[in-house]
Amino acid sequence: MTSLWKPENGFHRDLEISLARDSHIPTTGPQSAGQEREEHDGDQRALCLDRRSGSLVGFPTEATRPVIVVDAAQIKTDRRDGDALARWHRAGELTAIYIPTADDEALRDLVRAREDAVGLSPQAKHRLKAFLLRQGRRSPGRAGWTQAYRRWLADLSFPLAPQHIARQEYRDTIDETERRVERITDQLRQITPTWRWAPVVDALQALRGVSFVTAVGLVAEIGDIRRFDHPRQLMAFLGLVPSEYSSGPSVRRGGITKAGNPHARRLLAEAAWAYQGVARIGRQVLYRQDALPPAICAIAWKAQLRLTSRFRKLIARGKAKPKVATAVARELTGFLWAIAREVPAPPV
What we know:
There is one protein chain. By secondary structure, this protein is mostly helical. The chain has eleven helices and seven strands. The chain has helices at residues 78-90, 102-134, 147-154, 161-191, 198-204, 212-222, 231-237, 262-272, 283-288, 294-316, 321-342; strands at residues 2-3, 15-21, 36-37, 44-50, 55-60, 242-244, 253-256. The strands form three sheets. Strands 2-4-5 form a three-stranded antiparallel β-sheet, with no helix packed on it. It is globular. The N and C termini lie far apart (71 Å). The relative contact order is 0.08.
């Protein structure tokens, strides 16, 4: 009698290996892991029991007795890891990673510090609005943080002194967060011109929707953009390509993978919203392109023509605006790659 091999207690496996004879043993239908089977004359066949589907899949084998297949993940040693790495290196399957310099990491830390400071400002504003709602105070106009709204806040009067103190403390917190953002931004403007990637930062600002803060943030997070041989590699690195679960004739694509650097992906998604309107070169973009080579300006104008048209067409097809902005951000990545390739490599 030949029986299915059962793994150790407490160890989960999807497949259990057994040996049976000939095709008298059915290859479909639910089976139990401990069920015994009779021997028949004929060819040896190995059976795999799929726990999830409950079906047996048979395939020919030359084995004459049950074989236990041990998952490679159960045995891990430094020698096995070294052998695997050596084989992958010999086959050319290993890709060298990009290592930023100490200066690159330092500037990236400053960029993320500014990002954290920007995130604190909405929280402080929400707390102040919650306080005003508890007191039954609502702005007569728009609730945006305009000069009129700030004057309305300054003119508010409360019956009790602690309420005045609470209002002022909330306002001071908002003012401090805004001053912190301005301080860090000023430091970035002073440090970036001496950075080795400063020419790339200047060149990326030729694109619509890519200001100084966005450009320096993208370069600080991505590093050397020229290391990617194709823009699709950069798109995949930033997690802007659609996920896929396909097999045979079935093709299923889902949302973006969201792999890679979330900071750079967020910056690109924000920049993509600037392409909702018509293609034109505004005053700010014209000022940023003033000292740039014509080739870079031509790529930026081509990006405007392409992405504004893409945005309108996808909206006309009934796509949701956030999905359209994500699709535009993916294509914007390609133009970002093309501009970075036009900038000479910095000295090592």
